[in-house]
Please model this.
Amino acid sequence: MNIFRLGFLSFTLLDFIDILIVAVLLYQLYRVIKGTAAIYIFAGITLIYLFWMLVRAMHMQVLSTILGQVIGLGALALVIVFQQEIRKFLILIGTNSFLARQNLPNKLFSFGKSKTNSLLPDKDAIIKACRQMSKTKTGAILVIERNVDLSFFSASGDLIDATISRRLIESIFYKGSPMHDGALIIAGNRIKAARCVLPISENPDLPARLGMRHRAALGITEQSDAVVVTVSEETGEIAFAKEGELEMNISPEILLKRLDTEFN
Model:
């Protein structure tokens, strides 16, 4: 059905839906690549593509053919160059979809698996442990799993599979503990693993004062929908990371509100 007609142009409901979907996808793509070097690469590719369209419209056959070959071969190069961004984009789409909200992927592929991860984390134990570690300036990084499975990162550390408790968290990050260096991964109400290696954020706009602990917190939230709590070893400040964004120097009370929002 036509919405309106102007001369030789017609605008239908399908055209509107088409434009709306493209706009949403471009916005989500922008969210993924903003603040990274990838946005400049994307801008350069867009300019080359627009120039190719102009050359084709002007019927410049030789230049059009050359640029067409470059763009055709460039599809493979894009997958390589934007590997991390494509991963983040697909995770962003998947974790914000209707299927993810209904937890259907886990329901479909959970044959015989334990239902432990469906439990909520013990927020009280996490808050008390972070408050104490903040007072003693004990460095810590706690990754709390949501919909995206973090088994790949858990396998890089020491598997624990124990119920969350304040004493266990504090003992793991105690400076004399052999497991204090690395991340603690929590799934459901279980501590899944400790001493885990996380990806480091490649965002070039991060302040120089941020240490590796905070950069790792941002890195894992850029590649999954997990949330991360960190305690600074230098200042004792508590920080909260989500979707590649870091909220610095928050109180235990604010941290509890953030966890309540994510796990209720």
